[in-house]
Amino acid sequence: MTEAREHGANSLAQVNRTGDLRAACIQGIVIDKGHVKNNNKLKLFTVVGIGASAGGLKAFADLLGALPPEPGMAFVLVPHLAPQYKSHLTEILARNTRLPVSEVKSGDSVLPNRIYIIPPNRAMLIKKGVLHLSSSGHKSDWRNPIDSFFHSLAADYGKRAIGVLLSGEGSDGTDGLRAIKAGGGTTFAQDGETADHLSMPQSAVVSGYVDFILSPEEIGKRLGPAGDGATRYQNVSVKNKHGEESLNSILELLRTAKGIDFELYKRNMLRRRIQRRMTLGRVRDPEKYFLALKADPEEVELLYRDILLSVTSFFREPQSFRALKSVIYPRLLKNRSPQAPIRIWVPGCSTGEEAYSHAMNLVEFLGKRASQISFQIFATDVNPVVIETARAGLYSKRITAEVSTERLRRFFTETKDGYSISPSIRERCTFAVQNLVQDPPFTNLDLISCRNLLIYLGPTLQERAMQIFQYALKPQGILMLGRSETVANSLGRFSPLDVKRKIFSERTSVSKVRLNFSQSGRFLETEPAFKDPGQWQTKPAQDAPDLQGELDNVLPVRYIPNGVIVNGELDILRFLGDTSSYLRPAPGKPSMNLRRMASGELLLELRVAIHVVKKQACAVRKEIAAPHPGGPSRRVQIEVLPLKASSLHKEYFLILFEGIDSVEPGKRRGKEHHRVIELKEDLTVSGGNLTTIIEEQESTNARLKAASEALLSSNEELQSINEEFETAKEELQSTNEELITSAEDAGQANQILNRANNDLSNLLANIDIPVVLLDSDLKVRRFTPPAEKVLDLSVNKIGQFIADIRLPLCLPKLKQVLLEVIKTGHVQALEVKNTQGRWYYLILRPYRTDKSKTEKSRTEGAVMALIDIHDRKLSEKTVLRLATLVLDSNDAVIICDLKDRIIAWNKGAQKMYGYTEAEALMMSIKRLMPENKIIRARELVRVAAAQGKKAAPIEIQRRTKGGRTLDVLLTVTVLRDDKDQAVEVATTERDITEQKRADRELRRLHARVISSQETERKRLARELHDGVGQILSGAKFRLESLPGEISLGESAAAKILKVGEVLNHAIAEIRRVSQNLMPSELGDLGLEPALRTLCREFKERAGIQVTLRTKQVPADVTPELALALFRIAQEALNNIGKHSKAAMVTVDLSRKGSGIVLNVNDNGIGFTPGANRPLSGRGIGLGNMRARAESVGGSIELHSKPGAGTRLSVRAPLVGLGGDII
């Protein structure tokens, strides 16, 4: 016995990994002549069912490849296959094994050393060794084909069945392995290290139904020849004396480890379970298995699980649940107060299916009264693992085979891996761990449902259970048993209500047994004798106080001899004095029952005396010869007295023993005479005993005779009824054949309907537009989820008249339109708005039935569909506005394809270029371009199109139909398809011919103004220099000559000197102003020297550092351009000196291509572009600078940020006024 090991990324749990399957294959099945043709010899072999889903192909191949040439077993493969899939699995797997591989055909007999594979789209079962295929099986067979086959395999082959579960998703196969293990078979699951998909094998391992977790290759190796393991281990037995002792030791070990005493369970069942674990562990000797158990707590757990292996299902034996509805529930509710809840107990509930079935059954029966009548279901089991499963209320999809679709919908919630019981049912059920025969029961119960639990208990425990059930039930409470269980030994406690359904009623005429539960939870009969001498003193019975009082009344009247007190079952409750001369423990299991403590004639006499006391209710005294330990028998007088008290609910008896002294030798008349007297006395006693026994026998015979007469009478009635049944049977057989045919047809039709219903449900659930189905009366039948939100519908509005539902649609005549659609069968489409103003496209179609061969399709309702067109309506309105704007625009709007053909032409284009729309369409756009500028124009359009939205309008020239050339401002837009590929080019064109002419005229006028300004500047400079300057110079000269001509005082001389300084300053200012008005360097030396002089003078005057940088400045700059650049620099420096607070200025003059650039930068305070700036007082200001730049065909840009200085940039062509126009 080796330890179990853990497998899988998700800890597939631990189970026993040990044992060669050859040791597990002691099983076999007999194949009779009906199974295998021409087979006169019985054969024994095992059938292996192998299930897999996703990832199963590789697992199948690995397992079959590891099989020996003749394993002596049959292998049936059940993979999950798509219904329409053409399987090639047979050909693929045949390459991995020497065994014959074939696809199953219905009716194939299973033979050893062969491999069978289920075909697609079929369900498969095995019965009497024959494989049966079905194309119309139960829905669970389709969802869980592995479970279905494993169940049939377990039922057909029992302990000769092996189940193997390989890689796959879901939980299919888990329930099937449970059935195989419950039948004594062997189970395998693929380990997590090799499984591609863990879900399926993990589900089985976690459930505890797997014996071995191995890789597919290891599983194949262990599926060895059946003969090997069978011959080696088939003789494993625990039935011999040595085996019985080991069995008792094993049971004691289980009692110590798990707290449950299996001593009084059915021995054959216990032997089978232990033999199975011994086989799996490859142990033949029970004593060695016991030693292995002591050393391996995990094996103790596995054996414990095997013994408590539960087999249950929902609504098992459905006819019993129907009988509850028809007979039992009405009886329980009769004259019941609403405040009195119905109490139900389900002992041995396993994983909860039985308890939940009762809850659902009762809710269905109560109907609308379920909220008014309360009930509580108590469900118990000794195994805490299954109780946790029951409390969780989670079940696999296998339950679809047991629970109807309606019940699944009403009482369950579907989950990813199965179904969860609804809270309304779960809260009605209370689950608890409880030992039925050891722990106190629930009381005041209306119904106990204990089905298929008693079959595992021995007679003593069964009787104990019946006592507990009677004790727990109300008077006339209901007991419901399993199909194989009976109350034959407890008819005094229960009377039958429905024998066929195993439903019984508690008999109120029989007093209930008072139960005694010890502190350890074990009832008295199973407690070892003398285990604790003080135990009985510390645990008095419930009736001890009244029993003691009765003794106090009896014993004072008599002396107290040796004796015992027993109950009606002869259990010894108390010892009085020394009884060792009369009572001794018997060999074997300890017991405190009088039957095991007394022996021989003493026991017989005691039983007869107690019978007489019971019958006559008086004391009985006898004198008998009792055996004496260590010597000859002696005479003993026994006396049996009934104990009575009002509070004693059971029968109790006081048994007294008194030895009779032997006669003195002197008074004897001889040994022979004394022996004769003893024999006569014994004969007299025996005669009395015989008389009593004869009386009992006569009474019994009388009862048997009466029962026989009643039985004969009943037999005659049954024979008559049987004849009627035979006649009815023939009729039913004929009807049944017809019904089977009809059922098959109905089953196929039902599958088609279910599939269609599923398709419709999924279709409606996944349609993302509101759809409503109406019947012919315009009542709502179904609707899609979006209809709930858009039309404000809910489930409770199904079945309501559509006109009575306030739909949020502005369509008052909806009813009339729907009736028209149903009447005419024509589709109606309307554009409607809802109450929030959102637009929808309402389509109303007739709901037609399918056409048949004999009838035409009928309209039985209508289908409403709403399509949201709100965005489209808004777009249409926008497009309409834009279309109107484009069509009526004075600008030309033209769209061309990629081949330069015009495909759209508006009225503005017709007005601008003279071509009508008919003439322009499909005309090449080149016809609108001057011939000498076509290439240049197309290149500009291409560049503008490539720039996209960032492209600025371009100026271009067009040619009209009459040959006139127009200056046009053109905007290019590229139109793209949904793949972002360019498909068309749209242009918006505005005639700027007059604007260009006006601009040129304006520039000419401006140039003339500037020319006039410069002429005036020259005149003013000349007059100031030649006129005013000369006058001031003459005045200065005259003033300087005055001291020589006349004698002046010091005061007058000082004043004359001061006037001379003023004249000098005036002359210098005249020269400066003249220089500013007309710099002499500009005309004499050129632009660059004039700028240097300007910068030097600005530095001297403003105290600001100025740097002049020049690069490639041409010497032949035109006077107009030089003057304009000089004036701009002059104005810029003046502004900097007044406003910028700069410490440094840079002036850059350079050539860029065919133009010249002047940049003036300062590091002053800057300003916000667009803010109002004061203009120079004496200069022409910023506006004049811009005008001067434009007068020479240039442009000016001003860049500034607060705190970051200012940059003035002027660009002008060197060629003259403006550039070329395209």
List strands and helices in order, with pairings.
Elements: H1 21-24, E1 29-30, E2 44-52, H2 56-65, E3 73-79, H3 89-94, E4 101-103, E5 114-117, E6 123-127, E7 130-134, H4 139-143, H5 145-157, E8 161-165, H6 174-182, E9 186-190, H7 199-207, E10 212-214, H8 216-222, H9 226-233, H10 241-258, H11 267-280, H12 286-295, H13 297-307, H14 318-333, E11 342-347, H15 353-366, E12 375-381, H16 384-392, E13 394-396, H17 405-411, E14 412-414, E15 418-421, H18 423-426, E16 429-433, E17 445-450, H19 459-472, E18 473-481, E19 494-498, E20 503-506, H20 535-538, H21 544-554, E21 562-567, E22 572-576, H22 594-597, H23 600-616, E23 620-628, E24 631-643, E25 652-659, H24 671-766, E26 771-775, E27 780-783, H25 785-790, H26 814-824, E28 828-833, E29 839-848, E30 859-868, H27 870-888, E31 892-897, E32 902-905, H28 907-913, H29 917-920, H30 934-947, E33 954-959, E34 965-976, E35 982-991, H31 993-1045, H32 1050-1077, H33 1080-1084, H34 1087-1102, E36 1105-1111, H35 1119-1140, E37 1144-1152, E38 1155-1162, H36 1181-1191, E39 1195-1200, E40 1206-1213
Parallel strand pairs: 2-3, 2-8, 3-5, 4-5, 8-9, 9-10, 11-12, 11-17, 12-16, 17-18, 36-37
Antiparallel strand pairs: 1-2, 6-7, 13-15, 14-15, 18-20, 19-20, 21-22, 21-25, 23-24, 24-25, 26-27, 26-30, 28-29, 29-30, 31-32, 31-35, 33-34, 34-35, 37-38, 38-40, 39-40
Global shape: elongated
Return the average pLDDT rounded to an integer: 78
Q: How many H/I helices? A: 36
Largest sheet: 8 strands, mixed
Question: Low-confidence stretches at least 5 residues in length (pLDDT < 50)?
Answer: 1-43, 226-236, 518-545, 1171-1179, 1216-1222
The tally of strands reads 40
Question: What is the strand content?
Answer: 15-25%
Share of helical residues: 40-55%
Quaternary state, please? single chain
- CATH topology name of the largest domain, in short, is Rossmann fold
CATH class wording of the largest domain: Alpha Beta
CATH homology-level superfamily of the largest domain:
Methylesterase CheB, C-terminal domain
What gyration radius follows from the Cα positions, in whole Å?
58 Å
